[in-house]
Specification:
Elements: E1 12-17, E2 22-29, E3 33-41, H1 43-47, H2 54-76, E4 85-91, H3 95-112, E5 116-120, H4 121-127, E6 139-144, E7 149-156, E8 159-165, H5 171-181, H6 188-196, H7 220-235, H8 247-280, E9 284-288, H9 295-305, E10 313-315, H10 327-335
Parallel strand pairs: 1-4, 4-5, 6-9, 9-10
Antiparallel strand pairs: 1-2, 2-3, 6-7, 7-8
The structure holds 5'-O-[(R)-(carboxyoxy)(hydroxy)phosphoryl]adenosine and zinc ion.
């Protein structure tokens, strides 16, 4: 039997996520069943600038949020009266963007006289593992996104201990920077993921940082190694007229760099996570955050889960719930809302 959540009387939650560059709304029942979900990506707009432009993101959220709310209500066949509570991400994130979602949810809560539930974005990523799954704490969570790389001991739905984190770049940030080095576009993670499948992961040997603290991470050395190796290898490619390079030579080099970079990342994340689970006695391991959509990383963990003799159970959110989405906000609002402080404002410091 699945244990009781914090908010017992609340079943159906309409949740909004606007912490960065996706306008997402979902309706989630009992923290695990998604009745409707929509995501309006702004990636095309931000891709022109090579990264998220906060002012543009906030303005697009304003334009899109009402339509997204109507979409999910229609898709679920529900009216506002059938919603028990309204939820939104309060932080961490871009303040202008957060305000749009928070104000939309607070307004709906005010006009329907139903509760407003605030959610921490990182906790929402963890909660993405409860969607369409039976997972219950305790478990070890590897949270890997554009801004965070953390190993977290999840002892209860609202009881978290940070075990280790990156000392410099987040792993998603490293993906985005390597993609930029290779002039591949934004966001870099899915592009590198795709390109890596065409390359040789052993073509270059990139460092897997070993640190004094066993469960800490570092990706800045890897990023520098990739940059140096790429510059050197690119300079060795045969140049043609006007210093042009052969397209397929460049494509091969990019694929090999992407595959070798990804190999170093996957091995580092996998080995540290399993060692941590073993040291701390966790048999359940869950992944969360945008980078957990990565094909090679998922395969590495799935292979471990398919060996029952090891005793590990592996939980991977569906790919659509790895990157920012509102279903995870609905799940988090049910199991782990910010402690019912309605006056909590997005411009105050978000609870980490
Ligand atoms: O969780 P998320 O959507 O937003 C944050 O809270 O940061 O994560 C976004 C990050 C980006 O850095 C993106 O490049 C990375 O997740 N990402 C991936 C993949 N899909 C998204 N990284 C590696 N492989 C992927 N398939
Ligand atoms: Zn996120």
């Amino acid at each position: 039997m699945i244990s009781q959540p914090a908010s017992k009387q609340i079943e159906t939650i309409l949740a909004i996520e606007t912490s960065c560059d996706d306008t997402a709304v979902a309706i989630v029942k009992s923290g695990r069943t998604v009745l409707a979900t929509t995501i309006l990506s702004q990636a095309d707009t931000h891709a022109r600038y090579g990264g998220v432009v906060p002012e543009a993101a906030a303005r697009l959220h304003i334009e899109q949020v009402n339509g997204a709310i109507e979409t999910v209500l229609t898709e679920a066949g529900l009216t506002l009266e059938k919603i028990d509570a309204f939820a939104a991400t309060l932080g961490p994130g871009l303040v202008g963007s957060l305000l749009v979602g928070a104000n939309a949810a607070k307004t709906l809560s005010f006009i329907t006289n139903k509760p407003f539930l605030g959610v921490n974005h990182l906790h929402a990523h963890v909660a993405s593992n409860y969607i369409q799954s039976e997972l219950e704490p305790p478990f070890l969570c590897l949270l890997i996104s554009g801004g965070h790389t953390q190993l977290i001991a999840i002892r209860g739905y609202q009881q978290f201990d940070l075990v280790g984190q990156t000392r410099d770049d987040a792993v998603g940030e490293a993906y985005d920077k390597v993609a930029r080095m290779l002039s591949l576009g934004y966001p870099g993670g899915p592009i590198i993921d795709n390109l890596a499948s065409q390359g040789n992961p052993k073509a270059y040997r990139f460092p897997q940082a070993k640190l004094n603290e066993p469960f800490a991470f570092s990706f800045s050395g890897l990023k520098t190694a990739v940059s140096r190796t790429y510059a050197r290898a690119r300079a060795c490619l045969p140049a043609f007229e006007n210093n042009g390079l052969n397209e397929s030579d460049l494509q091969n080099l990019n694929a090999n760099i992407a595959a070798s970079f990804q190999y170093a990342v996957v091995e580092t994340l996998f080995k540290k996570t399993v060692a941590c689970a073993q040291a701390m006695g966790f048999s359940q391991i869950a992944l969360a955050g945008g980078v957990s959509a990565n094909t090679a990383l998922r395969q590495r963990f799935e292979a471990l889960g398919n060996q029952p003799e090891t005793g590990y159970r592996i939980y991977l959110p569906k790919k659509q719930f790895c990157t920012d989405n509102a279903a995870m906000v609905g799940a988090c609002a049910y199991f782990d809302p910010l402690t019912a402080d309605i006056a909590y404002e997005v411009f105050s410091r978000a609870k980490q």
